[in-house]
Specification:
The complex is a heterodimer. By secondary structure, chain A is mainly α. In chain A, about 75% of the residues lie in helices and about 0% in strands. Chain A is built from 18 helices and no strands. Chain A starts with a helix and ends in a 9-residue tail after the last helix. Chain B is α/β, with parallel strands linked by helices. In chain B, strands 6-7-8-3-9-10 form a six-stranded mixed sheet, sandwiched between helices. A four-stranded antiparallel sheet of chain B has the order 2-1-4-5. In chain B, helix 8 links the parallel strand 7 and strand 8. In chain B, helix 4 packs parallel to helix 7, helix 6 packs across helix 7 and helix 7 runs parallel beside helix 8. Classes of the chains: A mainly alpha, B alpha/beta. At the A-B interface, helix 8, helix 9 and helix 12 of A face strand 6, helix 4 and helix 5 of B.
Chain lengths: ~400, ~270
C-alpha cells in the first residue's frame, strides 16, 4: 500500500492531494526561511491559532445563508480574515503597549484558539446529526478531500512561491539589516508585512492538509534544518523548500494509506527526522562535525605545542601530547625526540619566527588573519615572501631544513 | 556661556557660511517615551567636509543620525540633504550602521553584503551580472577585503565586518556617507584602512559624517566637529569648536577631566 501511495497510484483524488500537499510544503519551506531569518518564526504560531474562530464563524455564516458549510474556499476565506485580525492584535499589542512580542503572541494565540474551540463545540450541538468535519482543521486530514480542494491548495502554494521570488531581495536585506534597509529607502514596514502576509497565505492554504496546530512546524523546521547545509540565503531557501516538499509528500502519502492517521503529525515527524539528520550530519554546522573538528583541532594544538617544546628542549607533561607525538613516530614514550621529530620541531620553531615577522608587517595583513598558531606558513605565503621574511628574522638564523 | 547660547552662536556662524550644504538638520528632537534623547539639535554640514559627531554615552549621537535618515521618527524637526528632502536625495546618501546592529550568523557571504549596496541598480528581479560583481569586488579591495569575498560573514573579525559594511556603502557611489561608530572595537589596521578610505572620499569631494567616540583622534581624522549632549554643545571647525571648555560642558564630571586636560595639552603642543 505504501509504495503505490508514494508513487501516486492510489487514484485520481489521492494523487491530487499528495501533489497539492507537496506544493504546499515547498511554499511553506521557502516562505518560512524569511520568517526564520527575520526572527519572527513564532508569529506564525499566533497566525495559525487565530484561524480557528474564522473557520467556525465562516461555517456558521455559510450554513445560515443556505450554502454548504464545508466549502473549503469559504472556510479558508473566514480563517484568513480571523488570522489577519489576530496578526493585527499582535502588532497593536507590541507597538502600542509595553508587552513584548512573545507575550503578545501568547495572549493572542490562546484567546483566539479558545474562542475557536467554543465555536466548534457550539457547531457540533447546533447542526445536529451533520458531520461538519471541522476537527480535521486542527490536525490536518486528507480524508474526504476533493480534487477541487487540492487545486485550491496548489494554486495558493504557487502564488505564494511567485510572491517570494519577486520579493526575495528586499526581504533578505530587511532581514539582515533593517536599519540599513530603512536608510536606503526600502519600505521596511511594508516588507515585514509582506513576510507576514506570505506566512498567513501558507498557513491558511495548509490548514486542511497540515492542520492549524502543526502548520507552524512546516514553516520553521525546514528552514532550520536547511540552515545546517548552507551559508547562502538562496540555497537555504531552496533546500528548505525541498525539505518541506519531501516532508509534506511523504506525510500525505503515509496518511492516505493508514486509515484515521492525521496528516499534520506525519508531515511534522518526517520534517523532524530530516532536521535531526541535518543537526547530526551537516559537515559544517552539525553536531558530529563540530565534535570531530574539536578533536582534530585539539590534537593539532597538542602536536604543535609538543613540537615547540621538543625544539626548545622543554619537558612534555601532558599525556595526550606525548601519545600523539609517539603515535606519529616523532618522539619516544619518555619524550625524547626521534630524528623525524627533531626536524619537525625545528621547522615548527622556524615557522613561529616567520609568523612573528609576518604579523608585524602591514603588507601581510590579510595573511596574518590566517595565523592560528597551527597553519604552516607555506600554505599562506609564497616562497619568495617567506624568503623575504627570513631576511627579517632577528637573531641567529636556524639552518634551513 | 551656556550650552544653549554656544549652540545658537555656532549655528548662526554655520548658517552664515556660504558653501553648499550636504546635510542640514533643523531642530530635530527625538524621544523614546518621556525624556528626549535628542533635544532640538540643528546643524549644517558643508559639502566636502569631514565631520565627527561626538558626545558622552547616551548623548543621542546615533539617534540624531537615525532621525535624520528617517530610521527613527523625530518628535519634531527635519533634515535636508543637499537642500532637498530625504526622499528625493536618497540615492546620494549612504549609511553605515553600527556593526553590532546585525546578526553576523546570517547566511550570507561578504560579496552578497556588498551587492546589497547595488540593490537600486539590481531591482527586484534583475540578475547579478559580472559588472555588478566586479563593482563589488572593487569596493572590497578599496577596504582591503577582496580576498574575503566568498567568505561567510560570520567568519570575519570585528574589524573586517566593519570594512565590509564600509564597502557596501562605497558600492552606492553616494555623495554623503554617514557612519555610526565606524571605529568602535576595531583593530588598528582596520582603523587605518577605514580612515584612508574616508579621507580619499573627502578628497574626491564627498561629504563624510561619522559618530565618533575616541576624543584622541578627532583632530587627526576630522576637520569639523559636532559636540552634542542631547543638545548641541559646540559645532564648527575642529580648531574653534573642539575646545576643552566644550568637552567639559559635554562630558562633565571629574572622570574625564584628566583626559580632557591631556587632550588640550596635546593640541597645544
Amino acid at each position: 500500500m505504501l509504495w503505490p501511495a508514494l508513487t501516486l497510484q492510489l487514484g485520481y483524488n489521492a494523487t491530487l492531494v499528495t501533489i497539492g500537499a507537496t506544493l504546499l510544503g515547498i511554499a511553506a519551506g521557502i516562505t518560512g526561511t524569511f520568517l526564520y531569518l527575520r526572527k519572527r518564526a513564532l508569529v506564525s504560531d499566533a497566525i495559525s491559532h487565530a484561524t480557528l474562530p474564522g473557520i467556525g464563524l465562516a461555517f456558521m455564516a455559510m450554513v445560515a445563508f443556505g450554502f454548504d458549510g464545508r466549502s473549503l474556499s469559504g472556510l479558508l476565506a473566514g480563517s484568513a480574515l480571523s488570522a489577519l485580525l489576530g496578526l493585527y492584535c499582535v502588532h497593536l499589542l507590541t507597538t502600542r503597549s509595553r508587552l513584548t512580542e512573545d507575550a503578545a503572541i501568547g495572549a493572542v494565540l490562546s484567546v483566539f484558539f479558545g474562542f475557536g474551540v467554543v465555536l466548534l463545540t457550539i457547531i457540533q450541538t447546533m447542526v445536529a446529526g451533520r458531520q461538519a468535519g471541522l476537527e480535521g482543521f486542527l490536525l490536518g486530514s486528507t480524508a474526504g478531500m476533493l480534487g477541487a480542494d487540492a487545486l485550491v491548495i496548489a494554486i495558493g502554494g504557487a502564488l505564494t512561491l511567485a510572491a517570494v521570488l519577486i520579493l526575495r531581495r528586499p526581504m533578505t536585506v530587511v532581514s539582515f539589516d533593517p536599519e540599513y534597509a530603512e536608510a536606503s529607502g526600502l519600505p521596511v514596514a511594508r516588507i515585514d508585512l509582506a513576510i507576514m502576509a506570505l506566512a498567513l497565505a501558507v498557513t491558511v492554504t495548509g490548514l486542511k492538509v497540515v492542520g492549524l496546530i502543526l502548520i507552524v512546524a512546516l514553516l520553521i523546521i525546514p528552514p532550520v534544518a536547511a540552515r545546517f547545509w548552507s551559508d547562502r540565503v538562496e540555497t537555504v531557501a531552496l533546500l528548505s523548500g525541498a525539505i518541506g516538499g519531501v516532508s509534506a509528500y511523504t506525510g500525505a502519502a503515509l496518511s492516505a494509506v493508514i486509515p484515521n492517521l492525521p496528516t499534520g503529525p506525519m508531515i511534522v515527524l518526517v520534517a523532524f527526522a530530516l532536521f535531526v539528520f541535518s543537526l547530526l550530519a551537516s559537515p559544517r554546522r552539525g553536531v558530529m562535525a563540530a565534535f570531530l573538528k574539536f578533536r582534530a583541532y585539539q590534537e593539532q594544538v597538542h602536536l604543535r605545542q609538543g613540537l615547540l617544546a621538543l625544539a626548545q628542549g622543554q619537558p612534555i607533561y601532558e599525556r595526550l601530547t606525548l601519545r600523539l607525538l609517539q603515535r606519529r613516530g616523532l618522539a619516544s614514550a619518555d619524550g625524547v625526540p626521534t630524528e623525524a621529530g627533531r626536524a619537525r620541531a625545528a621547522k615548527a620553531l622556524r615557522d613561529e619566527a616567520r609568523w612573528r615577522v609576518a604579523r608585524k608587517s602591514a603588507a601581510h595583513e590579510s595573511a596574518s588573519a590566517h595565523y592560528d598558531g597551527l597553519t604552516d606558513i607555506e600554505n599562506i605565503l609564497t616562497g619568495d615572501q617567506i624568503a623575504e621574511l627570513d631576511a627579517q628574522i632577528p637573531g641567529p638564523q636556524e639552518a634551513p631544513a | 556661556m551656556t550650552a544653549l547660547e554656544l549652540a545658537t552662536e555656532n549655528g548662526a556662524r554655520a548658517l552664515r557660511a556660504s558653501e553648499d550644504t550636504a546635510l542640514e538638520i533643523r531642530g530635530i528632537t527625538v524621544s523614546y517615551g518621556g525624556t528626549p534623547v535628542v533635544l532640538s539639535v540643528s546643524t549644517r554640514v558643508p559639502e566636502g567636509s569631514m565631520t565627527a559627531i561626538i558626545g558622552p554615552n547616551g548623548a543621542g549621537k546615533s539617534t540624531l543620525i537615525k532621525a535624520a535618515l528617517g530610521i527613527v521618527r523625530p518628535l519634531a524637526g527635519s533634515a535636508l540633504f543637499f537642500d532637498a528632502p530625504l526622499k528625493s536625495e536618497r540615492q546620494r546618501i549612504a549609511y553605515v550602521p553600527q556593526r553590532a546592529s546585525v546578526d553576523w550568523d546570517f547566511p550570507t557571504r561578504v560579496i552578497d553584503v556588498v551587492l546589497m549596496g547595488l540593490g537600486r541598480q539590481l531591482g527586484l528581479l534583475g540578475r547579478v551580472r559580472s559588472t555588478h560583481r566586479e563593482k563589488a569586488i572593487g569596493c572590497l579591495s578599496r577596504v582591503g577585503m577582496a580576498d574575503f569575498a566568498e567568505r561567510q560573514i560570520g567568519q570575519l573579525s570585528g574589524g573586517q565586518q566593519q570594512r565590509v559594511f564600509l564597502a557596501r556603502a562605497l558600492a552606492q557611489d553616494a555623495d554623503l556617507i554617514l557612519l555610526d561608530e565606524p571605529f568602535a572595537g576595531v583593530d588598528a589596521a582596520t582603523e587605518r584602512a577605514i580612515i584612508d578610505v574616508l579621507q580619499s572620499l573627502q578628497a574626491s569631494g564627498k561629504t563624510v559624517v561619522a559618530v565618533h567616540h575616541d576624543l584622541a583622534t578627532v583632530a587627526e581624522y576630522f576637520d569639523r566637529v559636532l559636540i552634542i549632549n542631547r543638545t548641541v554643545v559646540a559645532d564648527g571647525p575642529v580648531e574653534t569648536a573642539f575646545t576643552s571648555e566644550a568637552l567639559q560642558t559635554a562630558y562633565g564630571g571629574r572622570l574625564v577631566t584628566a583626559q580632557i586636560d591631556r587632550l588640550s595639552q596635546t593640541q597645544a603642543g
